[in-house]
Amino acid sequence: MVVDLIGGCRAFVSVSETGSFTAGAALARIPQPVASRRIAALERHLGERLFDRSTRRARLTPFGRDMLPTAKRLVRLADAMEHDAKRAKLRPLRLAVPDICTTRRLAELDAEARSLDLFLEFRLALPGERAELVRTHEVRAALVAVPADEGIWTLPLGLASAVEPSAAVIHLESLRPGRSGRPARRVWIQPEDDVPPIRDRMFRIRDSVGLRPAQVAVADSLSSAAGGVLCSADLLLCSADQARELGLAWRPIGETQLARGFDVVAGLGDDAHRLRTQLWPGIARCLGAAEPGEAQ
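Structure for LysR family transcriptional regulator, as requested:
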């Protein structure tokens, strides 16, 4: 027979402090019959009576007096364990995220996680930094850039401009410099896309269609790239969601289909599983990725 040792000790201590099974049960926040059953089970387990039941008050037997200090220590340890467990559940999971995530969407993701008793703390970082932060234990998990076909979350990429293009797609070959003397249009790659699966493919297309090397370049920051696009005919490589946020007109790339891919790296497998499953929709919205059945 399995004995609820902690429950029995809690009832034992409460009844001993009040001198009454009824008052002790109320102190332990359990019905009086439950307190009596737990104490009786504890007595059977220990092999001796804890209370003298021949009197109206619940008086301790000599054995009960000897066992009371140990029972109190066990109850205090159980209370401390419950307290520590509550604190541990409130300890935030530090998550490294791309700087493409807006404050509003991070707040929405945080609120969604809280409804699942998961508390997040975000750290914005560049693609090359995020996995390293997990390795050095500065964060517990990170959303890392991966090839699109390996991603748990994916975002199609295209080109965005300040002026609405007339064509349904933008071909990079259309950016070849002419003889007009006007400055050649450039395509800016933001730091989040400065990863081999995206950057290297853009450079290969640039070279194959005859653009100048400087016409496809990595920007120092998203803000500087977007600022340059807003005041010129340049283009920004970005997702449709980012283009809407920046007030730019977005079109797919004619020569290729590019997409960002993201997955989770975590020190603990449980953290990675919760982020990939329970928080999949919230992270998708935070990244600007389409959920299943949604159009970009």
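The two ends are 60 Å apart (CA to CA).
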